[in-house]
Amino acid sequence: MRSRGPLKPGSEIARLIGDLRDGDAIAREAASARLRVIGARTLTHLAALVHDERNPSVRVAALATIEGIDHPHSADIAIEALADADVDVRTAAIPVLRSWMSREPGTRVLEALTGVALDRAQPATVRLAALDALSDLPRDIVQPILERAPDAGPPVFTGPQEAREWVGAHEDASLSVLHDIVVMARERERADTPAAHQRDWMVVRGSVHALLARRRSRVALYDLRESFDAARSPLPLDFLTAIGTIGDGTCLEPLARAWAATPSETWWRERLSDAATDIMRREQIAPRSALIKRVRAKWPGFVATGRP
């Protein structure tokens, strides 16, 4: 992106950049919001702040602003910031890249985030932030990355009660370990007998999904979608809590299928519709979008016309 030259003293962008660099928290927040509205014209000047070695908090604020600007140069700036000496700056670069991962024509962003996620020299906070960003990818892409992530691996459980107790006592477990427990619980759920044991393993899986949702991680969102897609009876409530908290537009049709598959479960169907409404509101999915029109056409009554 070509520079538009030095800022004119007294110009709005100059004033806002000054507030972002030198202002207090309130001034920075206001400046950041306005710079996002102005958009791509500010990127050259925000990039200069990202390269400012004097104050890491200024670099973090600049990256947070860039995250809200829809221009490919945003990804260029964030990739450079992954090499910053400050942990907080590297972490702040990751949400910028997350938004571009599925939109870039090549694989540069994907390779940059994968490199961070697998880099044992990175602090755990940075690696896990990159790993969480990669969770937006399809399962067949993200699972090999999760398997290579530098963690000790999941614990081995003799039964579902032990697994539930471990999850309750290890809420700070890494995302890759929690993902592995979801996979393990699903496999045990399918293999164990009697049916009560299968249900117990499903409860374990739901508790991990709820924990991941509290941490705002979508690393196992694919499993939530598949669970609702295949559900022919009510799932444990942790599944509903999780999908209502972190679900996105791709979850609406699986929720609708679960709703259609349980015509006699009034309370369950109401909760499924509520979860869909929560997702639509949080993700700002317009009622007139093609997705919502398709859902309403295929499953009349699942999402009421008056809902957002």
Tags for this model:
308 residues; mainly alpha; Leucine-rich Repeat Variant; 2 domains; 17 helices
**End-to-end CA span:** 38 Å
Return the average pLDDT rounded to an integer: 88
Rg, rounded, reads: 22 Å
**Low-pLDDT regions:** none
* Helix content percent band: 55-70%
N to C succession of SSEs: HHHHHHHHHHHHHHHHH
General shape: globular
Question: What characterizes the major β-sheet?
Answer: none
The secondary structure category is mainly alpha
What would you call the quaternary organization? single chain
Strand element count: 0
Helix tally equals 17
Structurally, the number of domains stands at 2
Strand residue content: under 5%
SSE blueprint and pairings:
Elements: H1 12-22, H2 25-38, H3 43-50, H4 56-66, H5 73-81, H6 87-98, H7 108-117, H8 124-134, H9 139-148, H10 160-169, H11 175-191, H12 195-214, H13 221-230, H14 237-246, H15 252-260, H16 266-282, H17 290-298
Helix pairs in contact: 1-2, 2-4, 3-4, 4-6, 5-6, 6-8, 7-8, 10-12, 11-12, 12-14, 13-15, 14-16, 15-16
